[in-house]
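Researcher: For the annotation table, I need structure tokens for Tyrosine-type recombinase/integrase. Please keep the output clean. Sequence:
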Amino acid sequence: MKKINPIDNNHLSASIQKFNQGVLSIEDWDSVTESRYSRNSLLSYRNDWQVFVSFCQSQHVTALPCAVTTLRRFAELTSQQRKVSAIRRIIVTVGLVHRLHRQRDPSKHREVKYAMARLLAAKLPEAKEAAPFRKRHLSALREHFQSSNRLRDIRDLLIWSLCYEGLLKRSELAALAAEDVLYDGEKAYVMIGEQRVVLSEQTAVTLAIWLKYSGIHQGPLLRRINKHGHLGDTPLDPSSIYRVFRRASDVLGESVVFSGQSPRVGASKALAKQGLSIKQIQHLGRWKSPAMPAQYVGNREASEQAKARYRHKKSTE
């Protein structure tokens, strides 16, 4: 948004009255915006403002200044006749008019942002979410590979186990080092940043077998293995992680292809069924906002609201 000086106090009252009537010329708009916009932009502003003023008149409320609830209701009530992109453009125009007239900008209020997020979610097709990798998938893979002593089988089983139990991101998995493995009595842990993730007995056994067969004592915990079965020195990259989860789909005969995100989706759903709140799942999965865990467990409205809050926070940093 271009920086434009607000209307001076000597002309403020007259301008507010004129804008509330809604009938303004291109020259009027050019004057209040200090000739910063093209004619096409001014036409768009004029038309958008007239639409909003007409709505306010039909609702018997004031357009300038307008209440936050008025702008929210405008978005909700006109969503059946107008595209979300058009509504968003009109809301931007309303915000501009308020700032030019030294009024508080209602378009920045979270109530309006949440309403727009809900409208966008309703208009968009369902987001293509990664296929959930569930506990039953992990159990089947353990049964299939539990007696194998092939290095690739042990590593892949450990990857599936760690990602599911620790809700690991692909970057966190690749960054794991041997030094991140801790023991406290009979319990085994891995450190993910500042968070200590406790491992199940089965995963701890798989980890011990991996360390024994790989001979890894320091550096990357999970490494690439070439086509000859030789262990490399470099950590897994995104394409390697993708192939590991595609292999899980092939072994299980699943019609969907798992991705590195699949365990976080499946584990989030399982934790929600256990009664954990979205906030608790967010903490366990180390998400910066509750948006994604809310989406994974099916709470779409909470997800969109959290995304709106997160975008607002980032825009003010």
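Researcher: And a one-line annotation?
Model: The two ends are 17 Å apart (CA to CA).
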